[in-house]
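Usage

Read records sequentially. Each one opens with the input sequence:
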Amino acid sequence: MIDKRVNTAHEAVADIFDGATIMIGGFGEAGSPVELLHALIDQGASDLTIISNNTGSGEVGLAALIKAGRVSKAICSYPRTANSTVFTELYRSGSIKLELVPQGTLAERIRCGGAGVPAFYTATAVGTPLAEGKELREFEGKKYVLERGLRADFTIIKARTADVHGNLLYNKTARNFAPIMATAANTTIVQVQNVVDAGDIDPETIVTPGIFVDRVVCVAQPAHESELVAAGVSYP
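and closes with the structure output:
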């Protein structure tokens, strides 16, 4: 039996190295791996490239990692949202780079990375600044831009339940990016609310098979990102 469990969030992220590329789940607090991100801040890795739907909220989780100066580049769809201020200030000062990717294109680039597809053509972004410098090709009279698949050194995501083999179930919108991110990294690290024995999850309901998961850490009472932001919490 391959038991994927590790004891702490700090142990789970201990080998993330300077200069690593990391996919980070999110799409709201259902999928934001706050405890793993805070452990990564404590761990100290820097010059990171992050791939995420957004750049976090307030000064916790992903936003706190960016505020700490650990991220040199963000590849995302929404660098600025209602509660995000950290990224905007750093970007305007030239302290962080941004690769802006339409949300559907971002999802497909990650999916392709996990599936071993090096690139694909899409009509999204044709005729906009996001297509500048990229290959264009015409199919049946319509122009398409070439987008490359994305892979990462690590994926950090949040799920609701795992078994000891790393088979995962998610909570609502946590499922938007996390399942494809889990397939597209050399090492996938997951925080979950509860871990069950092998066989306790109906195989027909498993969303992410354990073959894609390397480490599982149980965080029984995870922080709610929105509550931390509303309370003005800043990590560390």
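Summary fields computed downstream for this record:
- The two ends are 37 Å apart (CA to CA).
- The CA atoms of residues 52 and 157 lie 10 Å apart.
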